[in-house]
Amino acid sequence: MRLLLSVLAALALAVGAAQAQTIRILMETVPDTRYIQELLPQFEEETGIDVEIEAISYIDMHSKLVPQLIAPEGSYDLIVVDFYWVGEFTKAGWLMPLDDLVERDGVDVDVYVPKLMDLVGRVDGVLYMLPFYNYSMALIYRQDLIDDADEQAAFQEAYGMELRVPQTWDEYWKQVEFFTRDTDGDGNRDFYGTVIQGQRGDCISMQWANYLYSQGGLYHDENWNPLLDTPEAIRAMEYYREAVENYSPAGSEAYCFDEAFNVMAQGRAYSFVTFNILYAGFEDPESSEVAGKVGITPNPGGGLNGGWGWAIPNSSPNKEAAWTFMKWAESAAVAKERAMLGGAPTQAQIFTDPDVMAARPYYPILGEILAGTKDFPVFTYTTEFVEQVGLELNLAATGEKPVAEAMAAAQEKLHALLVKDGKIEE
Amino acid sequence: MSVATAGGLTLAGRDRRFGLLLTAPGLLALILVITFPLFFTLFTSVHDYTLLTPNYDTFVGLENYQEALDEEYLPDSLWVTTKFVLASVVIEFIIGFAVALSLHATRRFQSIYYLILLAPLLINPVVVGLLWRMLLHSELGIVNYAIGLVGISPVSWLGDADVAFWTVVLTDIWHQVSFMAILLVAGLAALPREPYEAARMDGASTISCFIHITLPLMRPVIAVAILLRLIFAIKTFDIVFIMTKGGPGTATDLISYYIYRAAFFGLDIGRASAMAAGLLVIILALTVYLYRYMNSLK
User: Fold this and answer.
1) Using a CB-CB distance cutoff of 8 angstroms, which residues of chain B are in contact with residue A406?
2) CA-CA distance, A389 to A407, in Å (whole number)?
3) Which of A98, A292, B59, B150 has the fewest CB atoms in 10 Å of its CB?
């Protein structure tokens, strides 16, 4: 009798295991991942599919993903792809085209902001990803200082112009200079006009892009000819160097965005050119001393366009369930709920949705920021480009290499990588 | 006189065979986990193996080695690594030995001191890096705050090239010095007491005891301690990965992080393998030299 019971129990277990599906997703530990996790029970209830999200820090993601993507059957059913891996992942053939699934299930992909669809959606006309969230870069500044009557008068006197939310780079730079101060009179600056995130590699590459766009510069022309030794690029680097020397904390040439965030969040800086997704952190009294005092606006001249896309790797063991999840996460209702929690939208209608705007009044500005962004070069060797150019930029920022020399080296590096990728001729 | 046995083997021979039999599984495992990856790396290093084309179709001979040697910033990285290894191992040895001697002479609360000493060693290097990165934050870190209280102006611990190098060295020392101390303490504890008693009878001072008895007797232990730390130091990765990303400029660009970038950012596993193989040769040469030196002491 007991034997029979245990056999039955074993059978029941086996049947149960066959029915319950589990999908595994590798994600980054960022707020937008948290919002997905909060909403997960809905999905599991609706579909009976269990979801295991493995959330790790950005620096480990690429090296963890690649072996799984090369394998015939990897351990992740669904992944998220940073925009600068897009060239590499699609060139290597690791991502599954989604066009057939979209057509079969009648999913409307025209809801996405076209800029994001180009960045983390379609590659050469093939749909590989659905845009998940955007981290376009913007100017975060102290609204309370701009609104202060005394500051306004002093600024008017010093520069002969009105103190307002900066519309041009020139105006912004005057404000940066104006607000850099020694507040306790000990001879050392202790309030900064801007905060640099100048650490070698990714951190400086991302922030400097905004400086480049501010000067009307670009990484390459429409034929992929690199433009990093142009007067615009050199001027952008000169501004950056000036910020490191005069307007940003000493040592900020080694900051990444988290260290820089804290300087601003502790009320020690007027402005910070960074990812729009950090804004929610400034508005949260738990992590910020300046909650309620900061504003966000497009970087004068344009900011960097950044984003993540959902993708199903070819090595995914359970593609159908992964697609079911992707459809759910990107459905109008869930995308809206994520935005209400603070998520960075990718679908156009969400930026101006009345409920979203009631909960997050600044979302229309995020839409504006996104509309004004420019693209970083996305090609097979973007990751290496970020490292190589990030080193030259850092050498110039720290003053170890003259600006013009560093930019000439950056130009050479970009050129070599584009040749290696077959984008341009030798 | 040897004891003949039925199988024609001596007792010693049979012992040896039995010993081989016992160690065979372990040896096999070692071959699998050490030799196999080693040869695989060498094999990869002579092929055009990238993450975009992960196959061994293109044999390129020594091209990967040549390419690596031609790289602009490789000499910087090698030089930084050499300086780092020398600085950290020498300073760790001096501090470690001093700590070991005082611990050896201590009778009370020894276990408490051990505990304190071991604490950093038990922390994951990634955590050590994060911890110090926060403590040394140039604006908001507690270290700059503390030195500010006594009137020293804030130091750009990770932003200034020269300072950043020493910051990384000191972080490594903070983390690893106890390893050296523990090894040396063990060595001291195993020293015979008689030579010291004899020396005391002859009226030798503490310093001459140290120079003429402790140092010569400790030489094998010192050699092992330095050898181990040397090998670990060459492979240091986590601290620079977390704290500096090799910057500012190339000031802290250790070779292991350099190779990592070639593999995972450059996607060029072939070239990374070539550099790893080169590094292996250097470490092997060091090991052989020190091993010979140790043997010569016996």
Assistant:
1) none
2) 9
3) B150
